[in-house]
Amino acid sequence: MKSVWQPVCCFSSEIKHRVVYVGEKHLLVKMPLAKDLLNPTLDFERRQHKKKRLVQSPNSYFMDVKCPGCYKITTVFSHAQTVVLCVGCSTVLCQPTGGKARLTEGCSFRRKH
Protein backbone atom coordinates (compact mmCIF):
# COMPACT_ATOMS: atom_id res chain seq x y z
CA MET A 1 0.00 0.00 0.00
CA LYS A 2 1.38 3.41 -1.03
CA SER A 3 1.54 6.18 1.50
CA VAL A 4 0.45 9.57 0.26
CA TRP A 5 1.84 12.67 1.92
CA GLN A 6 -0.46 15.63 2.25
CA PRO A 7 1.26 19.02 2.27
CA VAL A 8 0.91 20.86 5.54
CA CYS A 9 1.18 24.62 5.39
CA CYS A 10 2.65 26.72 8.17
CA PHE A 11 3.87 30.28 8.38
CA SER A 12 7.38 31.22 9.35
CA SER A 13 7.51 34.59 11.08
CA GLU A 14 11.29 35.05 10.74
CA ILE A 15 11.44 34.89 6.96
CA LYS A 16 7.92 36.16 6.13
CA HIS A 17 7.32 33.40 3.59
CA ARG A 18 5.02 30.42 3.49
CA VAL A 19 6.74 27.09 4.20
CA VAL A 20 5.10 23.90 2.97
CA TYR A 21 6.02 20.63 4.70
CA VAL A 22 5.63 17.43 2.70
CA GLY A 23 6.46 14.46 4.87
CA GLU A 24 9.92 14.93 6.37
CA LYS A 25 11.05 17.36 3.68
CA HIS A 26 9.98 20.97 3.48
CA LEU A 27 9.76 23.38 0.59
CA LEU A 28 10.15 27.13 0.80
CA VAL A 29 7.48 28.67 -1.39
CA LYS A 30 8.24 32.30 -2.26
CA MET A 31 4.82 33.76 -1.52
CA PRO A 32 5.14 36.93 0.53
CA LEU A 33 2.59 37.36 3.28
CA ALA A 34 2.72 41.15 3.13
CA LYS A 35 1.70 43.28 0.14
CA ASP A 36 2.71 46.86 -0.51
CA LEU A 37 -0.68 48.52 -0.98
CA LEU A 38 0.69 52.02 -1.51
CA ASN A 39 2.96 51.07 -4.43
CA PRO A 40 1.10 48.45 -6.52
CA THR A 41 2.60 47.18 -9.76
CA LEU A 42 1.15 48.40 -13.06
CA ASP A 43 0.00 44.89 -13.94
CA PHE A 44 -1.81 44.54 -10.61
CA GLU A 45 -3.51 47.94 -11.02
CA ARG A 46 -4.64 47.08 -14.55
CA ARG A 47 -6.35 43.89 -13.34
CA GLN A 48 -8.17 45.64 -10.49
CA HIS A 49 -11.81 46.73 -10.75
CA LYS A 50 -12.15 50.36 -11.80
CA LYS A 51 -13.47 51.40 -8.37
CA LYS A 52 -10.96 49.36 -6.35
CA ARG A 53 -7.83 50.92 -7.84
CA LEU A 54 -5.63 53.20 -5.78
CA VAL A 55 -6.81 56.10 -7.97
CA GLN A 56 -10.16 55.41 -9.61
CA SER A 57 -10.05 55.53 -13.40
CA PRO A 58 -12.46 54.25 -16.07
CA ASN A 59 -11.75 51.31 -18.36
CA SER A 60 -13.25 53.07 -21.38
CA TYR A 61 -11.67 55.64 -23.70
CA PHE A 62 -12.16 57.39 -27.03
CA MET A 63 -10.05 56.42 -30.02
CA ASP A 64 -9.40 57.63 -33.56
CA VAL A 65 -10.11 54.82 -36.03
CA LYS A 66 -8.69 55.02 -39.56
CA CYS A 67 -10.79 53.46 -42.31
CA PRO A 68 -8.77 50.97 -44.42
CA GLY A 69 -10.65 51.96 -47.60
CA CYS A 70 -10.69 55.77 -47.71
CA TYR A 71 -8.24 56.55 -44.85
CA LYS A 72 -10.70 58.92 -43.13
CA ILE A 73 -10.41 59.19 -39.35
CA THR A 74 -13.49 58.71 -37.15
CA THR A 75 -13.67 59.13 -33.37
CA VAL A 76 -15.16 56.03 -31.73
CA PHE A 77 -15.94 55.17 -28.11
CA SER A 78 -14.13 52.00 -26.97
CA HIS A 79 -17.31 50.45 -25.54
CA ALA A 80 -19.61 51.52 -28.42
CA GLN A 81 -22.99 49.77 -28.31
CA THR A 82 -23.94 50.35 -31.94
CA VAL A 83 -22.27 49.55 -35.25
CA VAL A 84 -20.02 52.47 -36.29
CA LEU A 85 -19.81 53.19 -40.03
CA CYS A 86 -17.22 55.22 -41.92
CA VAL A 87 -18.48 58.67 -42.95
CA GLY A 88 -16.80 58.50 -46.37
CA CYS A 89 -17.42 54.99 -47.68
CA SER A 90 -19.94 53.44 -45.20
CA THR A 91 -17.57 50.61 -44.24
CA VAL A 92 -18.22 49.01 -40.84
CA LEU A 93 -15.44 50.20 -38.50
CA CYS A 94 -16.44 48.38 -35.30
CA GLN A 95 -19.12 46.03 -34.02
CA PRO A 96 -20.48 45.95 -30.46
CA THR A 97 -19.86 43.04 -28.11
CA GLY A 98 -20.83 42.68 -24.47
CA GLY A 99 -17.95 44.95 -23.41
CA LYS A 100 -15.42 46.60 -25.68
CA ALA A 101 -16.30 47.10 -29.33
CA ARG A 102 -14.54 44.81 -31.80
CA LEU A 103 -12.65 46.65 -34.54
CA THR A 104 -13.00 45.42 -38.10
CA GLU A 105 -9.94 43.69 -39.52
CA GLY A 106 -7.63 46.14 -41.25
CA CYS A 107 -8.69 49.17 -39.17
CA SER A 108 -5.96 50.94 -37.25
CA PHE A 109 -6.64 53.00 -34.14
CA ARG A 110 -4.98 55.49 -31.81
CA ARG A 111 -6.10 55.99 -28.24
CA LYS A 112 -7.05 59.59 -27.37
CA HIS A 113 -5.91 61.03 -24.05
UniProtKB/TrEMBL annotation:
- Do the record's keywords include Repeat? no
Pfam families per UniProt: Ribosomal_S27e
- Cofactor annotation: Zn(2+)
Quote the record's cofactor note: Binds 1 zinc ion per subunit.
Keywords assigned by UniProt?
Answer: Metal-binding, Ribonucleoprotein, Ribosomal protein, Zinc, Zinc-finger
Q: Which SUPFAM superfamilies match?
A: Zn-binding ribosomal proteins
The biological process GO terms on file are:
translation
What GO molecular function annotations does the UniProt record carry, in alphabetical order? structural constituent of ribosome; zinc ion binding
Metal-binding: is it a keyword of this entry? Answer: yes
* One cellular component term from this protein's GO annotations in UniProt: ribosome
Gene3D superfamilies xref list: Zn-binding ribosomal proteins
Please give the InterPro entries that the UniProt record associates with this protein.
Ribosomal_eS27, Ribosomal_eS27_Zn-bd_dom_sf, Ribosomal_zn-bd
Family (UniProt): Belongs to the eukaryotic ribosomal protein eS27 family.
What is this protein called in UniProt?
40S ribosomal protein S27
Organism annotation = Hemibagrus wyckioides
The top of its lineage is: Eukaryota, Metazoa, Chordata, Craniata, Vertebrata
